[in-house]
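User: What would this chain look like folded?
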Amino acid sequence: MTNELKTYSHEHTYGDFNLQFDGTKKQDIDTASQATQEAKGIAEVQASFVIAKKFPRNENECYMKMIDSCKRASLAEQSMYCYPRGG
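Assistant: Here's the prediction, encoded as structure tokens.
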């Protein structure tokens, strides 16, 4: 690899140094981007917890809905069931 000056539309690179036009290091921008992505991920998980607390699962209700659905002839005509035996 040679130490040639490479020019891109928004940054200059020379060797191991990578500077933006405003003088900030690209590493600082990448770190800020990572922090933003991390905060977004944390917010998504927290939102999932809030929704789960607000709308808890009711397993009995789900079971009864499934049993009622299985009683419909239209569902029975279209459905297929496979039970694997052995290993």
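Residues 26-54 form the longest helix (29 residues). If you want, I can go into more detail on any region.
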